[in-house]
Design a protein that fits this description.
Strand content: 5-15%
CATH class of the domain at 71-283 and 324-362 and 400-415: Alpha Beta
Helix content: 40-55%
Order of helices and strands: HHHHEHEHEHEHEHEEHEEEHEEHEHH
CATH topology of the domain at 71-283 and 324-362 and 400-415: Rossmann fold
CATH architecture of the domain at 71-283 and 324-362 and 400-415: 3-Layer(aba) Sandwich
Bound molecules: nicotinamide-adenine-dinucleotide
Radius of gyration: 27 Å
Structural class: alpha/beta
Number of helices: 14
Length: 441
Amino acid sequence: MTMKLSSSHMDNIPSTPGKFKMEKSPYIYRFRHYSSLAKLTFWSFVFLGLIVVFFFKTPSTSPPNSMPSDLSRRSLKTSSWGGPAWEKRVRSSARIRSQNGLSVLVTGAAGFVGTHVSAALKRRGDGVLGLDNFNNYYDPTLKRARQALLERSGIYIVEGDINDIALLKKLFEVIPFTHVMHLAAQAGVRYAMENPNSYVHSNIAGLVNVLEVCKNANPQPAIVWASSSSVYGLNSKVPFSEKDRTDQPASLYAATKKAGEEIAHTYNHIYGLSLTGLRFFTVYGPWGRPDMAYFFFTRDILKGKSIPIFEASNHGTVARDFTYIDDIVKGCLGALDTAEKSTGSGGKKKGPAQLRVFNLGNTSPVPVSDLVSILEKLLKVKAKRMVMKLPRNGDVQFTHANISFAQREFGYKPTTDLQTGLKKFVRWYVSYYGSGKKSSH
Ligand SMILES: NC(=O)c1ccc[n+]([C@@H]2O[C@H](COP(=O)([O-])OP(=O)(O)OC[C@H]3O[C@@H](n4cnc5c(N)ncnc54)[C@H](O)[C@@H]3O)[C@@H](O)[C@H]2O)c1
């Protein structure tokens, strides 16, 4: 992901302040030449000094979405926001249209899961406002296409970074959100070796920023946010239960999600924020993420390119608990609907608040080689398989969810098997990209 730095207030200072032209005066020659010259030099320095002081003391004329803190310089590109027309759009998108509906700020709304969750909330009459920075970790035109899709159902995605505290505060001033569905994050396991700071920026600094704004909001919203099955790391007890150890992350991505869970605990404990973390297990489906195996396998099989199939040591099978997007959406809505109110106000806790973590998986891990066989049948193309050893760059050998807690709390029950879900994905893929000619990157 290339980070485009937003211009800081320092950029507004001219590089050559106080340039001026000295003109010779006839008086200079009438008085004592040397002392006049010394006086002139002295006053010129005073004048220059005053100009410099003036520029450094004057408040910057930075746009309303820039921040005074260091983070503003780290923020990804944010387009302008604010003004009556903008506020009107925000209000209209967040308007609740059903009795007892929620008003939800969905961060990462142009992302894969964010798009589906936003659409589902809107369909049942909740008010939804999206927020996304449209970064180019993967093809931003896919994010724009998702945005266009949401726009058609009346959902506005504000373009901005979750690190932009002024923007977040403004959103809460305009809308007293009852819930925040926080999905914005730097996803992907392997990219962490290329750009580790993007994980810290979005998954740690960004999360803290969101929680800071939520804690100060009146009323405080309830927050449901995306953790990840990757927090189980090297845990080998199966199926993974929420009670299992999560202190052996195998990637920086996993470590930032685990840190998020600890940060959530802190904000719940100190400020009374109601917080629910969802550990998603390999989500797939239409409008999915091009960096995920099922997606780029499809692209590469269609292009006749070979695909890497990893195996663990001793020819061990690599398997994933693939979870179809509609099942994940049901889980997200269930978590939102059962989230209790936050208990703080004015930035202070008034009583104990809800703190939860749920696995959202499919409970049936499938070997990656089986995933490829299903794709071959659906695409009617034989894959060129390249069996390789699983590199130690973040991926774990298998994931397998125990979902009984989510089942008990909000009736979570995945209903789509991999064959059925991939069929829907392939249908979407071919209609969106064509059957091989158009590139998905
Ligand atoms: N898809 C999966 O299999 C999976 C598995 C486990 C966890 N998750 C988590 O679920 C969430 C959603 O994942 P996804 O698959 O939809 O990923 P995604 O990359 O498609 O969506 C994330 C969205 O957040 C936006 N974003 C990133 N950093 C931002 C920032 N600083 N400010 C504003 N917007 C920002 C991105 O532009 C993107 O549109 C993420 O938190 C991810 O870590 C996903």
